[in-house]
Specification:
It contains 11 helices and 8 strands. By secondary structure, the protein is α/β, with parallel strands linked by helices. Helix 5 links the parallel strand 3 and strand 4. The protein starts with 9 loop residues before the first helix and ends in a 12-residue tail after the last helix. It binds 3-methyl-2-oxobutanoic acid. The site of 3-methyl-2-oxobutanoic acid has 11 residues, from strand 6.
């Protein structure tokens, strides 16, 4: 008999730091992918607002709506049995006032089987993080490059303001965040932040010293049309695999090879 795998929870995620166990995080936006990632042992699945770019083909993460995030969160939540599932609060939810942010995050948790939210920002978001936590909603912070602020930051660039980044990280932890994404931060600074905080840091373009790593699944699988950011490692070339399979299918339909008698009913 197959027993259910032990669920990764917010406390067990936090404990991984003390255990020195590196944390593997990936994004997912649909049922089959989320199931595959879960069965393959990923610790955390992030329903990232990157879906705006990766799934919806938009230029930035700004256009995706709360309803669209909930739609995908519900689908992913249904697929996952083991991993902790975290959902991004879309732009500009975390900046529309504490009450609205709590309402939005509560909708995500009520309408999906997901367990936590992630929001971008450090020191300026401490009130929102604290309010969410006191409402019983676990929060993952996100500092460094914050894609929702791409226009303010002048592009997708490595963030180098050491003092500000350390302050943001510490402020997020003090406000009650259970984990922190560090995006596009020099590796030495990410290492220092990781040592200073008691909550796990999850790096993306932040070097190997972080407590865990996150990548966008379409980048890892080689589906995203290039060029990819320097921090991505492509583990497969599904673009080529899918394109080959589809070209072969088209050819076989056109020259009558598919379907053969094997795929037909008597
Ligand atoms: O939206 C997202 O996918 C993210 C990760 C890349 C950290 O925020």
């Amino acid at each position: 008999m197959n027993s259910k795998p032990e669920r990764v929870t917010v406390p067990s995620f936090r404990a991984m730091k003390g255990q020195g166990r590196k944390i593997a995080v990936l994004t997912a936006y649909d049922y089959p992918t989320a199931r595959l990632l879960d069965e393959s042992g990923v610790d955390v699945i992030l329903v990232g607002d990157s879906l705006s770019m990766v799934v919806q083909g938009r230029e930035t993460t700004l256009p995706v709506t709360l309803d669209e995030m909930i739609y995908h969160a519900e689908i992913v939540g249904r697929a996952v049995e083991r991993a902790l599932v975290v959902v991004d609060l879309p732009f500009p939810t975390a900046s529309t006032g504490v009450h609205k942010a709590v309402e939005a995050a509560a909708r995500i948790l009520k309408q999906s089987r997901c367990q936590a939210v992630k929001l971008e920002g450090g020191a300026e978001q401490t009130e929102v993080i604290a309010a969410l936590v006191s409402a019983g909603i676990p929060v993952m912070g996100h500092v460094g490059l914050r894609p929702q602020s791409v226009h303010q930051m002048g592009g997708y660039k490595v963030q180098r303001d050491e003092q500000r980044l350390m302050q943001d990280a510490q402020a997020a932890e003090r406000a009650g965040a259970f984990g922190l994404v560090l995006e596009c931060v020099p590796a030495s600074l990410a290492a220092e932040i990781t040592q200073t905080l008691s909550i796990p840091t999850i790096g993306i373009g932040a070097g190997a010293a972080c407590d865990g790593q996150v990548l966008v699944i379409h980048d890892l699988l080689g589906i995203t049309p290039g060029p990819l950011p320097r921090f991505v490692k492509q583990y497969a070339d599904l673009h080529e695999t899918i394109s080959l399979a589809v070209r072969q299918y088209c050819e076989e339909v056109r020259n009558g090879v598919f379907p053969s008698s094997e795929q037909a009913f008597k």
